[in-house]
Amino acid sequence: MPAALRGTLYAVGGLLWLTGCLWLVLHLVFPQATPFGPLPNSWEPVVLRIHGWAAACSLFLLGWVTAAHVSDRWRGFRSRVSGLTLASTVGVIAVTGYALYYTTGRLHDGAALVHECLGAAAIALLLVHRVQTSARRR
After folding, report:
1. Burial 101-129 (b: 16+ CB within 10 A, else e)
2. Which residues contact 3 (CB under 8 A, 6 or more apart)?
3. DSSP 69
């Protein structure tokens, strides 16, 4: 993978992960107290907007990586399991992200739980894939 593409992937993915984690912390730990009960933190919409922009960029990059990196490496069998796990997880995160935008009620709550858990864990999957790829090159 070209260094520029890898760097862009890491930058956008890092921004996506950090804004997701920041939103989760703001939402769960720092709600605004009012006489009528807790309200969402005032920074949540800003962080969520940045997260959404990064998500749109990441979907474009995911398509690019799938077309180039995955198809070039598929026959080599190296890191196939970790790569498929990572790509599948990102796919589920994308679908649940859309579900958070377009659904309500129980479906929204279920999508939120899956999106938050997989989103937080995605960094570990990326690190496993990267370590396996580096170890096999040596």
Report:
1. eeeeeeeeeebbebbbebbeebeebbeeb
2. none
3. I
Distance from C-alpha of 64 to C-alpha of 39, rounded to nearest angstrom:
39
3-state SS, residue 65: helix
Query: How do residues 27-71 score in pLDDT, each as one tens digit?
Result: 999 999 899 999 999 999 999 999 999 999 999 988 888 777 777
What does the buried/exposed string (b/e) look like for 44-77 if buried means 16 or more CB atoms within 10 Å of the residue's CB? beebbebbeebbebbbebbeebeeebeeeeeeee
Which two structure tokens, joined as six digits, stand for 127? 């690190």
Q: How many degrees, rounded to 5, is the angle at CA 62 between CA 89 and CA 102?
A: 65
The per-residue pLDDT for 45 is 95
What is the 8-class DSSP label of residue 40? -
Alpha-carbon distance of 40 to 17, in angstroms, equals: 20
Q: 0.85 exceeded by the pTM?
A: no
**Rounded distance, CA 12 to CA 65, Å?**
13
